[in-house]
Amino acid sequence: xxxxxxxxxxxxxxxxxxxxxxxxxxxxxxxxxxxxxxxxxxxxxxxxxxxxxxxxxxxxxxxxxxxxxxxxxxxxxxxxxxxxxxxxxxxxxxxxxxxxxxxxxxxxxxxxxxxxxxxxxxxxxxxxxxxxxxxxxxxxxxxxxxxxxxxxxxxxxxxxxxxxxxxxxxxxxxxxxxxxxxxxxxxxxxxxxxxxxxxxx
Length: 201
Hints:
Metallo-beta-lactamase, Chain A; 7 helices; 26% helix; 31% strand
């Protein structure tokens, strides 16, 4: 498993290429912008992008979807149904037809298996994606913080439950968030006020 991070416009969202180097296949996680840069990185790495995995439907995580569709006919785009039902406004613009993934579903990327955890709170259909020792946390969990709940569809109680669920996962994980730098689950269990509040610590 190889992971490449690109910080993309319009607001510096973290977009990730999840690559199976043996199969030479990849998924793009949260392509918020800069489709040429995303495609160029994949081409430079010698991998074929087969899917787009969205942690939620906000524009800064989906802005390059249509361009990727045009460049890669037949590419699969996954989004939780709760967010797919809301697309069509300024925060969640329409991105065309998506494939649903729900809590507990898995998506293959070559020989890698991506597990979906439904973690609402920032949006109703927010998810975290687990692959081996890594959590792609979207805007659920940040280094020392969490996603906003004051936007349409946000819910503080829901994100507290989602953080509690992440806290209760066994073991440690690398956490790759939608904004800011990487962290670890153990670090957030110890240092993140919101995670401690959610877990009753």
